[in-house]
Design a protein that fits this description.
The structure is a homodimer. Chain A is α/β, with parallel strands linked by helices and about 450 residues long. Helices cover about 30% and strands about 20% of the residues of chain A. Chain A contains 11 helices and 26 strands. Chain A has a 5-stranded parallel beta sheet with strand order 5-2-1-9-20, covered by helices on one side. The longest helix of chain A is centred in the first third of the chain and has 20 residues. At the A-B interface, strand 1, strand 2, strand 4, strand 5 and strand 6 of A face strand 1, strand 2, strand 4, strand 5 and strand 6 of B. Chains A, B: It catalyses: a quinone + NADH + H(+) = a quinol + NAD(+). Chains A, B: Keywords: FAD, Flavoprotein, NAD, Oxidoreductase, Transit peptide. Chains A, B: This is NADH:ubiquinone reductase (non-electrogenic).
């Protein structure tokens, strides 16, 4: 039996693993060469971890599982009648069973023109892009002479108060307040303003209300300005608008909504408003024989009619279920009972020594929650090497308050200070010190050598 | 006294450090936010280390040295009459003393059109670009059905047999032979062909001849094809030409030559053919009062008329010298004696348990040389964190033969297999297996699921 799995995220990986001892040929196709541990991606965006710490080549994961062939390619279409997946002009993959596990991407609710100014956080490139924007804002604030511009540069808006938004905002305020002080001479990075905007009535809306309240207090104590019940009506290069209010900001991060990847459209399946495929009780796609779908690509319900969340544990449970179902089918055994999501809990970290954890009726907050969060995440990383490196980076950051990967890399967004070298340009010094025009409460005396022309 | 330092490499950093207790105001300007440990950059390019392991924010380095202001900006001109450095339209930096430490970049000997197909290795972006090309070549070889194309994809040419070229070629052959096997199903990565082309008569031309011979034997034993006395006459997307010989290759890395950065042209200083500034015995630039230059930007001689090499230890010695000279001047003390380069030795690693080390009359090779090389490099990294992380990554790679940062990131070069998703495309399966047309000695049986349309 030929099984094709589209997507090397949590769902796809678990499905392939569950087929380890089944008499099937698995082809796992992903457009990236790596599996990414998305729950820690915000730590790459805030310079705490390196991309290599939380990503592993998919091939390495299946090095010893000989019935899996890994292909790095981007699927371009699916013919469900002929049962073949196509990637570009030259590659096609016939299947007896197809698992769609292509995940979700950020949704701008029809305002895709906001994407360039308000990047989301789904890939390594997203994370290093956000990291560059964050760090460049401080660099530019240090050299500007314009007080209003400096305020704008040091204002950061996170749109969306779910786990990603909360974790990002917490990590950003820690970066500014703990990792950077004493390194700048003209600005105080601790003056950075981090605004978290959430349209709903509370942060972490999927958590119990009391934990939302704990998270809100933690964020506010750390210095994050939280605006619940506030809808962003415009994003632009100068900042965001929320109805009549304008928040001047240099850096906006989008953590507000997701939309399913287009795999549902390729097979013309029934989908909900977020593009998620409606699946049957065995996670199969109705009317598309042999096709299954898992993860945040689907709208599934647990045994009690409640929606299954779009997170990593749910994707893994679904992937494992389909893997086992196909293994049973290949071995000629009876199919397992319908998929039932088991909710083990939910957790989010807010910052240093602060996290909220819900484990059924058990609630953990503060230091205990934070330890639980850290150990759980280390446990779920792939392989010994990542566990050691991430543990060490966290220990080192905890003890020194520093960040290990504070690199500005990649192409700069337009409009920066740094311009390509045009050769020799001689300009007379106009003799006005950069610092003279601007008086700043926390400002160091401007060094005489730093002047504006 | 206002000291402006252009460049946060080894020379600029040492100069600023040597001014720690001097009554001066130092402004250190770099277009990057980080100091990069270039000697280990080839390990980023070959997926062994992450960029964050060998780069540190310049500001963090000078966090406690309050007389240093770090500015991330790109210098665009220098007015030596008015004594001011200019960066873009808004920033200018008057100086009493100016240190040029802007380094060198790769030189294509007038054939700059080769740059897109034969990238050099100077920045983090260069390293992740080369890493992407290397890893993508294996991914594409795995899915191609064309035997000639597969051979071309698995051929890698390193141009230049100096330390960078030798270390890169060694690391590439190890990546192919030790880190990747068992992960591919249709190719044997160990069949990859790595060709090292050197125009001169021997590799490591700056080393003693016996060590060049040791390095050559090591490379050949590892499986690198070394072509000395061979000049590359053309680089293109299909490979390189060396006179009449054509070497089909998907990936070319340029490690053949360097040219000084344009700082010498900005101040219209006397320069040699490689653009290096001719400096006086105190590393000052003749006819440009208050201007000094260090590192591989200059052509300097040691006390005996021999040229000072363009490597990290020499840059550090020069930087320290100018820092001390300026400190003496600021304190009203007599100037130090003329700069004298002290050669401590030279070292290059070739691969697992193989390196060549020259320490005056002492020579170390093989395992002992390799240990010496490793310990020396760990010692020179900045900070406890990097030393621990790099040591651990090396230990882990040594024990498992794997690489920790095998990520394909960033924009792909044009012409790849992966194409953007154009929506739903239905294509009939033409039923010919990808593997059928190609017979391959080391090939695994092609899985039936992998077919070509």
């Amino acid at each position: 039996m030929r099984v094709v799995i589209l997507g090397g995220g949590f769902g796809g990986l678990e499905a392939a693993r569950a087929l380890a001892r089944a008499p099937v040929e698995v082809t796992l196709i992903d457009r990236q060469n790596h599996h990414l541990f998305q729950p820690l991606l915000y730590q790459v965006a805030t310079a705490a971890l390196s991309p290599g710490d939380i990503a592993w080549p998919v091939r390495t994961v299946f090095r010893r599982q000989r019935n899996v062939t890994v292909v790095m390619a981007e699927a371009t279409g699916i013919d469900t009648a002929a049962r073949v997946v196509r990637a570009g002009d030259t590659l096609s993959f016939p299947y007896d069973a197809l698992l769609l596990a292509t995940g979700a991407t950020h949704s701008y609710f029809g305002r895709d023109e906001w994407a360039p100014v308000a990047p989301g956080l789904k890939t390594i490139e997203d994370a290093t892009d956000i990291r560059r924007r964050l760090l460049l804002a401080f660099e530019r604030a240090e050299v500007t002479n314009d007080e209003a511009e400096r305020r704008r540069l040091l204002t950061f808006v996170v749109v969306g108060g779910g786990p990603t938004g909360v974790e990002l905002a917490g990590a950003m305020v820690e970066l500014a307040r703990h990792a950077m002080p004493r390194e700048f001479r003209r600005i105080d990075p601790a003056m950075a303003r981090i605004v978290l905007v959430e349209a709903g009535p509370r942060v972490l809306p999927t958590f119990p209300e009391d934990l939302s309240a704990v998270a809100l207090r933690s964020l506010e104590r750390m210095g994050v300005q939280v605006r619940t019940g506030t809808r962003v009506t415009h994003c632009g290069p100068d900042g965001v608008e929320c109805g009549d209010e304008r928040i001047g900001a240099s850096t906006i991060v989008w953590a507000a909504g997701v939309v399913a990847s287009p795999a549902g459209a390729w097979i013309d399946a029934e989908r909900d408003r977020q593009g998620r495929i409606t699946v049957g009780a065995d996670l199969s796609v109705p009317g598309r024989p042999g096709v299954f779908a898992v993860g945040d690509l689907v709208a599934a319900t647990d045994g009690h009619g409640r929606p299954v969340p779009g997170n990593a544990p749910a994707a893994k449970q679904m992937g494992r279920y389909v893997g086992r179902l196909l293994a049973a089918r290949a071995k000629g055994r009876p199919a397992p009972p319908p998929f039932a999501y088991r909710h083990h809990g939910d957790l989010a970290t807010i910052g240093r020594r602060s996290a909220v954890v819900e484990l059924g009726s058990i609630r953990l907050t503060g230091l205990i929650g934070w330890w639980f969060w850290g150990i759980a995440h280390i446990y779920y990383l792939v392989g010994f090497r990542s566990r050691v490196v991430v543990s060490f980076e966290w220990l080192w950051s905890y003890l020194t308050f520093q960040r290990g990967a504070r690199l500005i890399t990649g192409r700069e967004p337009r409009g920066g200070n740094a311009v390509p070298v045009p050769g020799q340009v001689r300009v007379p010094d106009q003799g006005r010190a950069l610092g003279e025009g601007a008086q700043h409460k926390h400002q160091q005396p401007a060094p005489a050598a730093l002047r504006a022309g």
